[in-house]
Design goal:
With 354 residues, this protein is of the alpha/beta class. It is 39% helix and 17% strand. The protein binds 5-S-methyl-1-O-phosphono-5-thio-D-ribulose (MRU).
Length: 354
C-alpha cells in the first residue's frame, strides 16, 4: 500500500517505527492520533508529514453537529496549532497548514458543507501534487546519474517519506530503471536507523544492490573512490540554498567535496522556504535523549552522561552541487535559481513544468 492513504473519511498509514520487522497499518479518524504519529515518527519524512497533517486538519473539522462556519474555523485553528507543534524543521508541514487555512477562509462567506468540500479537495491536491513531484524529481535527477554509478544516501528519502515514490530514492529508482546504478551505499543513520530500517528495506524490495554501512564508514568508501554521487533529501531549503536534512548530512557533504564527488539534494519546491534567508534561521528539532542513550529499549550509555540530540543539521549551499526539484535541476548561485523557480521560471533538466 502507499505510505499514506485517505479512504472512507479515515487516514491509513504504515507505522514506520515498526519497520522492517512488522508492517502494521494504522487507521484513524482522530487528528490527535495523526499529531502523535508525526511526533513519534510513525509518519516521518518532510513531504509525508505535510500530506498527513493536511488530512489531519480534514479529520479535525469533519465532526458532526458543528453549529456553523464560525465553529468550524475555530476547530480548524486548534488543529492547525496542534499539528504545527509536532515537528519544527520540515517546512512542508507549515506550507500544508497555510494551504488548508487559505482554502477554508479564501472563498468568502461559505456554508459548513462548502468549506468541508474545499478542505477535502485541498488535502487531496497536496497529496496528488506530491505524488507528481516525486515522479518528476526521479526523472529529472536520473539525468545526473551516469552509467555504472555507485551512489550513497543518508536517512530515508523514499516512498515512506512522501506520498509518492520518494525524492532522493525516486532518483535512484529512475536511474536504476535506466540500468545506470551498480549499487547504493546506505548510511544506517543513527540514532533511529532510518537508513538501515527503511531505506535498505525499500531498495532491497526494488531489487537494487544495497550495501549498508555505519555512518562513520562513509568517509572510507568515499576515500576509496567507491562513490560516484551522494544524494539526499531535505527538510527545509533556505533562500540561499542552505539545506536542513537528517543529522549526519553535513559531514557527508564535506566528505563529498573533499573527494570531488557531486553532492545532490532532491526535494520538491514545497521544501523551499523563501522566508528563511539562510540555514542559521532554520529551526532544528532536538529529540529526546533516550533515542541516543538506548538501543532497542536497552540502555547503552553510561549513567549520568548528558546528551545533545539534534534531529537535523544544515549543509551550506556552497557544498551542494545541484538541487533536483520537480521543476528541474537548480545550480548555484542558489539565491538566484531558487528565487527564479519560485517565480515560475524554468530550470535546467526536464521537470513537470508546473
Ligand atoms: O526525522 P525524519 O526521519 O523525519 O527525517 C527525515 C529526513 O531527514 C529526510 O531525509 C527528509 O525529510 C527528506 S524526505 C523526502
Amino acid at each position: 500500500m502507499a505510505t499514506l492513504e485517505w479512504a472512507d473519511g479515515k487516514l491509513r498509514f504504515i507505522d514506520q517505527t515498526l519497520l522492517p520487522a512488522q508492517e502494521v497499518i494504522v487507521e484513524t479518524a482522530d487528528y490527535r492520533t495523526v499529531c502523535q504519529a508525526i511526533r513519534s515518527l510513525k509518519i516521518r519524512g518532510a513531504p509525508a508529514i505535510g500530506v498527513a497533517a493536511a488530512f489531519g486538519v480534514l479529520l479535525a473539522v469533519r465532526r458532526p453537529h458543528l453549529s456553523g462556519p464560525g465553529e468550524l474555523l475555530a476547530v480548524l485553528d486548534e488543529a492547525v496549532r496542534d499539528l504545527s507543534a509536532t515537528r519544527p524543521t520540515a517546512v512542508n508541514l507549515f506550507a500544508a497548514m497555510r494551504r488548508m487555512e487559505r482554502s477554508a477562509r479564501g472563498g468568502g462567506e461559505m456554508t459548513v458543507q462548502a468549506i468541508l468540500a474545499r478542505l477535502a479537495a485541498e488535502a487531496l491536491a497536496i497529496q496528488r501534487e506530491d505524488i507528481a513531484s516525486c515522479r518528476a524529481i526521479g526523472e529529472c535527477g536520473a539525468d545526473l546519474i551516469p552509467p555504472r554509478s555507485s551512489l550513497l544516501t543518508h536517512c530515508n528519502a523514499g516512498a515512506l517519506a512522501t506520498a509518492g515514490e520518494g525524492t532522493a530514492l525516486a532518483v535512484v529508482a529512475a536511474a536504476a530503471r535506466r540500468g545506470n546504478v551498480v549499487r547504493v551505499f546506505v548510511d544506517e543513520t543513527r540514532p533511529l536507523f532510518q537508513g538501515a530500517r527503511l531505506t535498505a528495506w525499500e531498495l532491497v524490495k526494488q531489487g537494487i544492490r544495497t550495501v549498508l554501512i555505519t555512518d562513520s564508514t562513509a568517509g572510507s568508501v568515499l576515500a576509496r573512490g567507491d562513490v560516484n554521487a551522494v544524494i539526499v533529501g531535505a527538510d527545509r531549503i533556505a533562500a540561499n540554498g542552505d539545506t536542513a536534512n537528517k543529522v549526519g548530512t553535513y559531514p557527508l557533504a564535506v566528505l563529498a567535496r573533499r573527494h570531488d564527488v557531486p553532492f545532490y539534494v532532491a526535494a520538491p519546491t514545497s521544501t523551499i522556504d523563501p522566508a528563511v534567508p539562510d540555514g542559521s534561521h532554520i529551526p532544528i528539532e532536538e529529540r529526546d535523549e533516550g533515542e541516543v542513550t538506548t538501543f532497542a529499549g536497552v540502555r547503552i550509555a553510561a549513567p549520568g552522561v548528558s546528551v545533545y540530540a539534534p534531529a537535523f543539521d544544515v549543509t551550506p549551499g556552497s557544498l551542494v552541487s545541484a538541487i533536483i526539484t520537480e521543476r528541474g535541476i537548480l545550480r548555484p548561485p542558489y539565491g538566484e535559481s531558487l528565487a527564479g523557480i519560485l517565480r515560475g521560471e524554468n530550470a535546467g533538466g526536464k521537470g513537470n513544468g508546473r
